[in-house]
């Protein structure tokens, strides 16, 4: 175990929090966008001159605090950066090629441990895959406690479909607060899902996906109630984007038009109905 100059053990669990707090206090007064997390400090600018000025301000602050940077770990004037397994650029957020290459070249699992490792990697990028729980469900069922690991044709088809979905994952666009959000929701027998998007530069771009497997009681809901649940859960999930804004909600279930005339009269007959009054 090593110690820093101030005496905090480098491998102590609280050392990262202390570093983040110190960097936050140091950089916060600066008039630039500078984000800190457990691994990176990132300065974001809209142009070259602004970026140069921001870097100068940050370096001056670090110098005043007697802090040093490792040149080999500094990446300046990048149009895209690798960040927590993702590629961040002006165009949007996309999956990291090396990780996706590992998924693409993954051989069919021969035991539960290999399958869980594969699903763990895929789950990290689930926000790039529409209806991820529905696609991956047969594989998740196989990880449950069973006497034998039996790799069926259905499992193999699901395995390949999941790999194809990840290798062809779209670039997720950044939300633009001045434009209307579009929320598409849907429900199936065992899961619900939603897509948050916006019209950007004349085309509809995906901002994020949401999906969730239904519990056993929820799977017994009628179709209309499942579709309603999809709306409720999607609005809850995308609350930071949708709260206080007018947005377009699209669903393929015509029966839900009754929501437009829903009145808070009488006692709601279910948990979903109670939540629906706030949609």
Describe this structure in words.
With 279 residues, the protein is of the alpha+beta class. It is built from ten helices and nine strands. A four-stranded mixed β-sheet has the order 8-7-6-9. Strand 1 and strand 2 form a beta hairpin. It is globular. The mean pLDDT is 81. Its EC number is 2.7.7.49. One of its GO terms (molecular function) is endonuclease activity. Keywords: Endonuclease, Hydrolase, Multifunctional enzyme, Nuclease, Nucleotidyltransferase, RNA-directed DNA polymerase, Transferase.
Write a compact overview of the structure shown.
By secondary structure, the protein is α+β, with helices and mostly antiparallel strands. The chain has helices spanning 15-27, 48-64, 97-104, 112-124, 132-142, 153-167, 216-219, 223-237, 239-242, 271-276; strands spanning 33-36, 41-44, 80-83, 86-89, 93-95, 182-187, 191-200, 203-213, 248-251. 18% of the residues are buried.
Attribute tags:
279 residues, 9 strands, 18% strand, 4-stranded mixed β-sheet, alpha+beta, single chain, globular, 3-stranded antiparallel β-sheet, 10 helices
């Amino acid at each position: 175990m090593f110690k820093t100059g101030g005496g905090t053990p480098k491998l102590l669990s609280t050392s990262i929090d202390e570093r983040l707090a110190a960097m936050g206090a140091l950089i916060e007064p600066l008039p630039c966008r500078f984000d800190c997390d457990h691994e990176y400090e990132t300065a974001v600018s809209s142009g070259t001159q602004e970026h140069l000025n921001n870097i100068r301000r940050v370096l001056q602050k670090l110098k005043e605090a007697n802090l040093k940077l490792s040149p080999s770990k500094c990446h300046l004037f990048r149009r895209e950066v690798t960040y927590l397994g993702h590629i961040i650029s002006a165009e949007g957020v996309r999956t990291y090629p090396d990780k996706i290459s590992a998924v693409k070249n993954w051989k069919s699992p021969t035991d539960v441990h290999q399958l869980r490792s594969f699903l763990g990697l895929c789950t990290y990028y689930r926000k790039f895959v529409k209806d991820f729980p529905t696609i991956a469900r047969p594989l998740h069922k196989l990880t449950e406690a069973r006497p034998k690991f039996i790799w069926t044709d259905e499992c193999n088809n699901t395995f390949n479909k999941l790999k194809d979905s990840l290798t062809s994952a779209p670039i997720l666009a950044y939300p633009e607060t001045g434009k209307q959000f579009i929320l598409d929701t849907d429900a199936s027998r065992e899961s619900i899902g939603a897509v948050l998007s916006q019209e950007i530069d004349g085309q509809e771009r995906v901002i994020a996906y949401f999906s969730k497997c239904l519990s056993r009681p929820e799977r017994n809901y009628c179709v209309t109630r499942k579709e309603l649940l999809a709306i409720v859960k999607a609005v809850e999930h995308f609350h930071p984007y949708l709260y206080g804004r007018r947005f377009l909600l699209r669903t393929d279930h015509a029966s839900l038009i009754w929501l437009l005339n829903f009145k808070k009269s009488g006692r709601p007959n279910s948990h979903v109905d109670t939540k629906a009054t706030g949609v």
